[in-house]
Structures are given as structure tokens and as C-alpha cells.
Amino acid sequence: MSLSELLSFYINKKKTNMTQFAQYLGIDRSTLHKIIKGQRPATSEALVNKMTQYLCLSQEETKQILEAYEIDTIGAFIFYRRKHIQDFFKEADHVLDHHYQITEQVQNDQTLVDDVYTGRINVEHILYTLYSYELREEKPHVRIMEQPYEMSIIFDSFNHISAEMPMTHLFYLDNSQKQTKNNEFYNLKCLNNLLPVILRNKNYHPYYYYSNVSIMNEHDVFYPNVMITTRYLFTYTNDHSQGILYKLPQIVNAYKEKFDAYLKEAECFMTRNSWTNYLTDTETFFDTHVITQEIMTTPCPTYVFEENDLSIMRKALKDFFPNKEEFIKDFQKFGYYWNEVFYPQHSDIFHIIYTLQGLRYTAKTGYLHDIPPELFNPLSLEDRLTLLRKWKEFCIKHPYVMMADMPYLSETSTTYFQLTNQSFHIIASDSTGTLANISIKEITLVEAFKDFIDNVVKKNAYSKEDEIKLIDECIEMIEMEM
User: Fold this and answer.
1) Does 101 reside within a domain?
2) Residue 193 and residue 214 in one domain
3) Over 60: is that where the pLDDT of 216 sits?
């Protein structure tokens, strides 16, 4: 229901006197009448809040009214897109760890014959079998054309067989900027399904085209999905109820050529770079990208610790931390680079957003988002105090370091996010513990993440004065425990 419909419903339900209502709101009765009739918009969220207060609405009813106001203001598409992006941040760590347990028995090669296969079990068995057989080839390579929306379990079972298979994946995305029937953000749903794949398989390469290009119209009939290996071609339906297997080399090669022709018209959806040396690779990344915004949870010691603070890091890193002393040296080198080279030149465009929840988490536990807790001893109370005092100075000095209220972003997350004008980056650990920088380049997703982050800054960021007060509260809490 729209805001005007909801207001009309509650006004009638509560038999509200319109003259008194208008007086309470401080607006003309005629203006209020036009808002209720949907003939003019409500002027502000504050006005809508006053309306809910006068009508004595419950918390749930107030939420419904405020959401209706926001939809009227920014449009349903952007409203629901922001909600889905928020869910993405909330579930980010779970998405990246997503895993299905599937075991598939692969039959001998002789059982694969040119034939029509019916039933989901049989169709998916063929997909698993072809993937497994391809590992025997001298130069294995799987080409697949299917929408990521339906492929979570299949991809996971592929990785169960082998997570090193070179795979090229072609699919289409939506650029219509229109709502689906379930108010879903289709492109984000595809991203959710593909993130675990690219984290586990560094040889996975996804490409996309938009749903209004000619190749979709040519291909989206009868058996729209295709899997091509060195020796086999398998075409199958969207619901995996039926598929046709071909072994004739002429047919297989013809489809390979057609697939590669489609690929030339497509764009790279996302890439993955493994960061084997976290700090050195971060420095290289900063030097080669114009980063505009970074979202993390906790205060970052890398940005504030100086040479005389290295003993804190040495104490905090566990003894079995890989190449511990080398990391300490890199930490010192990066600290100089950050404080003397990079940030003085980019502080006006590189906006750092951290969370109230992460600040309190570090103050209470001594853990940080930079390093997985398995490798990190929590900071002592004294060291936490040093960090937060330095972080406070950093925040006072730099106006574009901002604290935001983001309760949906896990305070324990070691994943962080960076935005440039052309790409959105997720820095997360892969299945081996290696940091992977996943770069998403598809424009509707980049724009959606940028819009969401800008809205967080607008609506949920604290003023600098309030930010410092909250840091001081955490400092006082630590001092009381010492």
C-alpha cells in the first residue's frame, strides 16, 4: 500500500479529527488532505514520524508507514534494491562459506551414449559425469551456458570433484531497472550464487551479456542451457528435466565455435586475484585503483600504528602465524607507505567507513577485522587502549573517516569491501586461507553498491562529534577494566 492509502486507512480506523491533526503537524488542513489523497508528497521523514506519533501507531505499523514514504520518495525499485544489498552485507560471510555436501558416483565412459536423458537426477548426473571426465584431458576446459540463479548445488558438486577445473561460464543479466514479480534484484542473486564458486576455483571465469541482446533471443529456446567439454556436448532444459547428449566431434566443435562467438560479445562479470602477500598486494592495489570508499568493521591498526607499536603486533600474532617476522616487516613498510605516501594524497577521496558495532567489539574482546581470530591473540587492555587512542586522533584529523550504525554487518567479519568508480571489491579468505580480491565490474551492481553506501553515509553515519564521544565511551570502558 502507498503512504496515502496507509494514512487514509489509519485515519479512518482511529476516527481522527483532521483539523486537530493538521494543527499538531504544523501544516494547513488542505495540505494534509492532499497528502492523504496522494495529490502531493509528504515533505520529510520527520513529518511522517509526527504523523505516526499522533496516530499512536505500533512499532510495526510505524515501520510500514516509513517504508511506504521511502518507496514514494525514491521509487520501489531502489527501495527493494537497497534492502537486498543490506541482506547481502548481512549474509556476506555465509555466502562466501556456502557449501553443499554432495557425493556423485561417476560411471564408466562406455555408459555415455548419444541419447535423450529425462528426469532431473539423470540430467544432473550427466553434468557431474562430464565434469569428472574432463579432468582426464590433457588440457581440460569446461564451457557452460546456464543462469547462475539455479546453479548453486551444481557448482558446489563440481567443486567437490575438483576446484581447479578451467571453466568459462556465460549467462545473461538484467539491465531493465525494473522490479521482478518478487521484488528481487536478479543480478545480485546471481552474484550471491557465483561468489563461492570464484572463491574456491581460481580458474573460474564468468561472463555476461544483457537480456535484451540478440544472442539471448537466439538461444533461449527448447534447450537453452549448454555444457561443452573436450569430447561432449550436453544441452538441457532450465528445469533440468530433459537433456540431449552429443558425442559427434562435428557437433561438439560447432557448439564450441558458437559459444566462443557469444563470448566475444560478452563482458567479464568479475575477476579474482589471490593476495599471497597481504600488505604488499594491498599497496599494489591502492597504487593501481582509485578507491573512493572502504567499508570495514573494526578500527584498523594498519592505518594508525607506528614503528614503536610493532611490539603490539608481534605480541598479538600467534607463534604459528605464517612468516610472522616477514609480516611484521611488511606491516612496518605498509604503515610508512599509508601514512607518508598514499593517504596524504588521497584522504579527500578515500572515504573510510567503520561500524559502531565493530568499535565496541574490539573494545570488549581485543579482536580486529584484519586478521582471522585463529591466527591472532586478542589485544590486551593496555594495547586496546593504545589502538583506540590512536584511532581517535586519526578520526579527528580526517573528516572522511566515518563511523556508521550497520548492525547487519557482522562485527566478527574478516571480509571487507572497497568501491571505485568502475568496480566493487570484496576482500575475503578463500578455502585455503589465502586472501582473494574479488572484483565485480558489472555496472548495475557497482551502481547499486555505491547507492547503498552513499545512503548509509547519509542516514546512518554519526557526526564527528558523536563519533568521538562513542570512541571516548569505549576508552573509558577499557580504563575501568584495567
Assistant:
1) no
2) yes
3) no
